[in-house]
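Fold Annotation — chain and its backbone

Fields — amino acid sequence, structure tokens

___
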Amino acid sequence: MLKLTIQATDGHARRGEIHVKNQTVPTPVFMPVGTQATVKTLDVEEVAAVSEGLILSNTYHLWLQPGEAIVKAQGGLHQFMQWPGLVLTDSGGYQVFSLKNARKIYEEGVHFKHHKSGEQLVLTPEKSIQIQNDLGADIIMSFDECPPFDAPYEYHKESLERTLRWAKRGKAAHQRADQALFGIIQGGPHMDLRRHSLNALVAMDFDGYAIGGLSVGESRADMYEALYQIAPEMPADKPRYLMGVGTPEDLLAGVEAGIDMFDCVNPTRIARHGVAYTHLGPITIKNKTFENDSDPLDEACACPVCAKYSRSYIRHLYKAGETLGARLVSYHNLFFLKTLMQGMRDAIQEGTFKAFKSDFLKTYETLKKTP
């Protein structure tokens, strides 16, 4: 149902394709996040233009609103949101565990309160899989716990063993042969636990494997240390997915480590706050310095936003409270990442990835060094 082909490698970095349901996605790939069955502020035609046809939606939020039964009755996520591409759904675990004091963890699953209504709810591995089966995503994720990176070793170990038992239960509950199911590696900063997690999941034979529990508040150095050790040890013949990571610097590091798939809310979240990626580094377009700036957001960008609109106009939209500002910058930021991923794929093909990464970062840090 899901097949990965590798076309070229450069060190650990790899270029390939994921084939799912007669659709092909080039890798490494960044997936825009459509939490509520929508990538915020963009319609599906725009999302198609700034993606490679694979997006992520959120199991937890769609379970609570509108409910998986409604989505199923509407023909599944693709029909519900009129999206012709592929969809990956996360398990809901990260959202539940982010509730912290509002939830309790048991072997059965997690008991928690609805973050809006206060209703008591229970999410189990079986329930997570059932929701994702009903949502009809093309790739779904195992239910896991995402502990704080700095949690004690013994807690990471206890949590990891429970997550592995949940993975086994979820795999047994999976009812749809047309959906690929990925396992999630946990273990925090502890490489012995991460290797144990990886080996146990590989023994269960998932369709792909994800690294969870990174980009959760730890330093970038700590994240990279864990990433560079565990990613190259993941199965070479199946997709490698780094969850919740999406800044340009982190995407480059992930690809260098051998990761194939990424997702993150960052490009659209920062856009709503007026932050735009540029080849010289991010800018805050709401700043007064851009009040009379007739240049595009990024002179090196080929997106329609940069072709049509000035920094001055986009700043005006934000200052006037017009939603078009966030829409334009969201489009631009996702286009920027799509272009970056294409550049990385080409560099891997040409055997020049190391130089590509170095050159990009040297330029991207220009604004940081500007007085």
